[in-house]
Amino acid sequence: MNRSSFLVLGILSFSTTCFGQTTTTDSQTLQALLSEIRLLRQDMQTTTIAAQRAQILIYRLQGQEAAIARASQRLDDARDKFARIQNEQKHVASDVKQTEDFISNTENPATQRKELEDRVRQLKTRLELLESEEQQRQTREIEAEQQLRAEAVRLERPARPVGAP
Predict the structure, then answer these.
(1) In which band, very low, low, confident or very high, does the pLDDT at 111 lie, cut at 50, 70 and 90?
(2) Helix, strand, or coil here: 146?
(3) Helix, strand or coil, per DSSP, at residue 163
């Protein structure tokens, strides 16, 4: 009987040792899995933050590109209006010269001459207005060029990180 109790005691001790190791192995496995999950969670958070920052930078870039497009459009409009004013100014100056030449080279009745001289005065007044408007348009064109350059500089400047001061 002594042998059988020794055998039972041996089996119990062996099974406890085996089961105890299994519990320790399971616990180590669970700790390793838990650690891996935590690392994956940290990686996901880091990736999410990086994606959000990239998205913010993309929005900023799109905003800057839109600002450049608007500034470029304003410059094109200013140049177009400036060119139209210059063209109209040339036509009015040509009309003044032609009318003055017509007055001086032909003999006209007094009433017709007076009408032509009134026309010359009107054309000269219009020419003065166009010259004033030309200066304004030129100023607007210069301002539009400066704005476009400023927007281009903002686009070329490296962007600060989102969280940086």
Answers:
(1) confident
(2) helix
(3) coil
Per-residue pLDDT reduced to its tens digit, 137-146: 999 999 999 9
Can you tell me the distance from the alpha carbon of 75 to that of 85, in angstroms, rounded to the nearest whole number? 15
Structure tokens given for 102? 């017509």
**Residues 162, 53 contacting (CB under 8 angstroms):** yes
Quote the CA–CA distance of 128 and 89 in Å, as a whole number.
9
Choose among 52, 67, 64: nearest CA to 158. Answer: 64
CB 136 within 8 A of CB 109: no
Smallest Cα–Cα separation from 123: which of 101, 94, 102, 103?
94
- The letter for the amino acid at 149 is R
Joined tokens for residue 34: 């838990």
Query: Which residue type, as a one-letter code, is found at position 164?
Result: A
Q: Is the pTM of this model over 0.90?
A: no
Question: Is there a contact between 120 and 96 (Cβ–Cβ < 8 Å)?
Answer: yes
